[in-house]
Amino acid sequence: MGCAHGKCCNRDSSTSDEDAGHHQRGIRPYKNKDGLTQRSLELVQVPSHNFTLQYSSLTQHGYYPDTTDRENQDSFCIKTQIQGNPYVHFFGVFDGHGQYGAQCSNFVKDKLVEILSSDPTLLDDPLKAYNSAFLATNSELRDSEIDDALSGTTAITVLVVGDTLYVANVGDSRAVIAVKDGDRILAEDLSVDQTPFRKDEYDRVKLFGARVLSVDQVEGLKDPDIQHWGDEESHGGDPPRLWVPNGMYPGTAFTRSVGDSTAEKIGVIAVPEISIVRLTPSHLFFVVASDGVFEFLSSQTVVNMATAYKDPSDACTAIAGDSYKRWLELENRTDDITIIIVQIKGLSNQSGVGTTDSEVHSRPCQTGGSMNQSAAIVPPLMHQRPLESDVG
Known about the structure:
The chain is an alpha+beta fold. The chain has helices at residues 101-117, 126-143, 199-207, 215-218, 261-264, 291-294, 299-307, 312-330; strands at residues 36-38, 42-46, 51-60, 74-79, 88-97, 152-161, 164-170, 174-181, 184-189, 211-213, 241-243, 250-252, 258-259, 273-278, 283-289, 337-345, 359-360, 365-366.
C-alpha cells in the first residue's frame, strides 16, 4: 500500500490455496523480461551452527498502462558475511513510493546495510544496532539530495546471526517463515504490517494530529466520523489513510516508513519493529517480499507455493508470476513485485543452542517504543574471529 494515488489496496480474502497459479481470461502474460531481474541459486554457510542458507531473489517491474516508462521502485539487498563474519548475513526488500520512490528505496538499501556493517556493537546488541541503523538511514536520506517530502520506502529485513533471525520491519512489506508441524507446513508471520488497521498504530498517529480517513471519506463521499474499517485482509480497495489536519495529502496507507518527511509530522516514523526467531530443525525456509506479493496472496499461500519447489529460484518465479496475474485479474495494472526466498539446510538440534519448539514472537518488539521487548530478547551470538574479506 502506498500513497493515495499510488498503489491499490484491494485484498482477495477469498483466494484459496488450491487455486494458486490457475487463472484464465486474456490477462497480460508474465513474460516482461525487460522488467525482470532474477539472481541464480546461491549458497552461504553458517559454520557456527553447521547449516547452509540456499537462496534466490527476483524483482519484477510493475505493469502500469498509463505510465509504461515508470521505473521499478522496489529494490533488494543480500549481503553475506557482514563485517567479514561468516555467521552474519543480511536479506532485505525495500518498496519505494512517491515521485522519487525508486531513488529512496535504492538509497536506503545501500545505506542501511552500510551502517549495520560499520557498527561495532552489532553482535553485542543487534536490537540496538538495528534500531540505530534505521534512524540513521532516515536521517541520511533527509540530508541527501533526494526530495523525500512525499516520497520514501518501506523496509523488511532479516539479519541472520548464527542460528537466530532478527527481523526488522518498517511499513507494510512482510517476512514469513515456513514451519514443519507434523505433516503440515505452516506459515508464521515474522512481521506485522504497520497500517491504520492496527489499533496501536491508529492511536499513535492520531496523537500526532493525523486525520485517518479513506479516500471516499476525505472526499466527502462517506461519513468521516465512522472510524472503523474492519480488518486489513477482508477490506476492499479504500483503506484508511493518513492526512494532515487541513490538507489532502500525503494519503499514506502505512504508518511507518523511511523518508516521507511530510508524513513524519503526523506520526509516520522510521522506528522498526523487531522480532526474533531462534531457528530449529522445524524451520524450513523464510520469505522476504514486498506487498506486491502479499496484496492478493496470503502468507500461507506463499508458503504452500514455495514448498512445491526444491529450487528457491523456481519458487520465486512461480510466486511472482501468480502475484502478477492476480493483480491483473482484479486491477488494470500490477504493483512492482520483489521476493527473496531463503532455504535453511542441514540445521540440527546438535548444531548449536536450540529449542524444542518453534520460537516465533507473534508480536514484534518495538525498539524505542511502548511494546515490551524484554520477552523477545535472546542472547547475542558470541564473537567469532572474522574472515579477512567480505564477500557479500
